Amino acid sequence: MEFGVVELSRLQFAMTAMYHFLFVPLTLGLSIIVAIMETVYVMTGRPIWRQMTKFWGTLFGINFVLGVATGITMEFQFGMNWSYYSHYVGDIFGAPLAIEGLMAFFLEATFVGLFFFGWDRLSRRGHLLVTWLVAIGSNFSALWILIANGWMQNPVGAVFNPETMRMEMTSFFEVLFNEVAQAKFVHTVSAGYVTASFFVLGVSCWYLLKGRHQELARRSIAVAAAFGLASALSVVVLGDESGYETSHNQKMKLAAMEGMWETEPAPAPFTLFGIPDQEARETRYAIQIPWMMGLIGTRSLTQEIPGIHELVDEAEERIHRGVIAYDALMTIRAERDDTPEDVRATFEEYSDDLGYALLLKRYIEDPRDADDALIASTAWDTVPTVWPIFWAFRIMVGLGFAFIAVMAYFFYRASFRGMRFPRWALTLGVIAIPAPWIAAELGWFVAEFGRQPWTVDGVLPTALSVSHLGIGDLLVTLAGFIAFYTVLFVIEMALMLKYIRKGPFQDVEETDTWMARHEHRLRTHDGKGPFAETPAE
What we know:
Elements: H1 5-20, H2 24-44, H3 47-80, H4 83-117, H5 124-153, E1 158-161, E2 166-169, H6 172-176, H7 179-210, H8 214-249, H9 251-258, E3 270-277, E4 282-289, H10 292-298, H11 308-335, H12 341-350, H13 354-358, H14 372-379, H15 386-416, H16 423-431, H17 435-449, E5 454-456, E6 460-461, H18 471-502, H19 508-517, H20 519-524
Antiparallel strand pairs: 1-2, 3-4, 5-6
């Protein structure tokens, strides 16, 4: 593949975005888990729960700081590498980003300091409130970012203004309550909860294998397994909702995810396995489950899911209509206030398809000069490369069901088997730590790569969104980002491993006080119960 400005800009943003998302899910999930642990501490007064809150809170803090650093870099890229995108849709896209900074990030950043330094300065309930505000701020940050991203997937509440040549917001509430954004938010935060649950579970399993901090490890497994099982089930249910929304708003992405080249009779089957062939425009060796895709995608037995060929034909028609809109737009721009009313009416009628005419600008300066052959070939640009999306989706879904099985097993052992875990299960818990990150990155790959060739679906092609930069500039900055992020990754891993090996901080004074208060009960305790000190099998 020959890399140009567009490809290098996409590669750079993809690299920084996917690296940043290494930190986001753990921040989302750990903030809630830490708040749950401190809630138990405030309710019971048992110092072990304070110790757990401090330990996992320290790991949360390391991850939070590096997540903030990488997130700021991403936002600068909108102005540096994607300046025309920022100009064209900045009125809409900028609003949720600004609110995220003012409302969510400042809330989170303000109270995170109080979380770490307020243990001896705040009351128990006061510190608990701070911890929950940090968790709420973390999740609010995700909400506003996903509202912005959801608008790129389903651009509602905005229209193109021919006078300013920009998209302008018409309804903030449509942007806010965009069905795609809401589905993405709940799905993404649930995936973050699963990620943090596996992290807590895996580290705790490692402690049990090493015979260290067993009381903390068992309680942490109990919390992580319960929270993780509920979250893993939510991911599957909410992922189904995201698929249903995709069938309405991004039909080409859904067809690519399924490798569905031809429109299948309703209800469409789900392709469990296959090898998509982009050149032959078919999926070879397909193994299908009857009816399943129709039920997932349309929730009916009678509604068809269009295939890629049918959607390309529809795109070709929309390009033709978009050219009419483009011609009317050029007339409006040339004649300004003297534009005939019928020209403005024509533009209003066809303006929804203007973005499709802009796809032609990749090949020709004026879309009105395109012939039928160029329009027909350009319509195929609306088809993303199928095989990466096809397989990324299936690996992600397979991992999602595996997460349910793992969490259900640990929940069962924690709740009904006296916290006894076979060594193989503890080893599996450690090995499984990276799996939720892999699933999350694959999910974002499907969402973003599947939207191509659009930066804003149906409105602004990716090829027109980039800044006027040289290839040399992009190569230098790409190399710089790789070097800088590699250093950050090494720092992150070194700090995490350092504090995991070090283990939890012991609150000696508070522990002694609690032990004295409950000395008699501890002497007579028979060693049974969900948090008993029982060895691994």
